[in-house]
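Appendix B, example 12.
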Amino acid sequence: MKEGWTYKKLGEVCDILDSQRKPITKNKRESGSIPYYGATGLLDYVKDYIFDEKLVLLGEDGAKWGAGENSAYIIEGKAWVNNHAHALRPQRELLLDELLVYYLNFSNLLSYITGVTVPKLNQEKMRSIEIPIGPIKEQQSIVDYLDSAFAKIDAMKANAEKALNEAKALFQASLKEMLEPKEGWEEKKIKDICETVTDFVAAGSFAGLRENVVYNSEKDYAQLVRTTDLKSGFSKGGYVYVNEHAFNYLYRVNLNEECVILPNVGVNCGEVYYVTPSILPYNNNVLGPNAVLVRSKNYSNHFLSYLFLGNEFQTKLGDITSHMAQPKFNKTGLKEIEISVPPLSEQQRIVDYLDSLKSKVDRLQENYDKISQECDALKQAILRQVFE
């Protein structure tokens, strides 16, 4: 604690304006010029407003604290605030808005939350959060220092992000150009190119699957590869395993050879994964539910994975995708999609070229992720220096 500074409770230095918050149902939101705020920031626009001043919002969704997400931010002007964020008006002769935001986003607020299933910060707990209070001039000096330091850090991160986005744009442009049908290309249906178009449920009835396939959290004979595993690059753990009987029962979706996997249900629907045994971390692997396995013997599966990423295929896939409850397509519709394919030698040339571009994108992605983590760590180190 700096000399001349003291701690006060948040409720002692801020007016809590929660009673003025107005929840609004999604179907009543209308386009307009008035922003609508909640726990995750700007959500939508509505015509009416509840506040018309500079305020600090503190999201009450405690599940996000400690996950590298800012829970506090400043809003100004006319705005709705729903009941998922607390509206705070600091007593500005005691506390600057900007310093409060920096402190709340630096602090570990997990000890103030209640609830297990849905962790939240209620008003009583929020009022007891301790805030460092010092002379306003010193607060302003700290804010100026943090603003300057954070601007430089954000610029470093933005430069890395710009390089990554430029590489991604180049890859997408090259992908479009390379997949443009040319002389010698043939129109074929997926079912005429790929001998295997199958999925988890092809093993039998749902009753048969329940009887023969039991999920285990402990390592067993084989790993059940899920969309989430592929999306994370097998980096998040929580894997699912099955015994040898289940592995044999699911022989149709054995991942012992290269293939293309297309998630076909939910938010990941339409994503594309080129899978070879070498990228799988376990010895025996079978594909889990909510994805289709596609494999060709006479065409390059690697080329097909790039083709499936292209706009033409994704548009056709969208045409067979239902959006009733959640996005979903079936393997029957997939088999009927027509695609343009070049001779095998041309497929390999395209793969080699796109692989070279993708490797650059991957390196820049790794660089961005590293810089992003280092920037976040540097910000926390600076905040510790200021507040501890």
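Residues 344-387 form the longest helix (44 residues). The radius of gyration is 27 Å.
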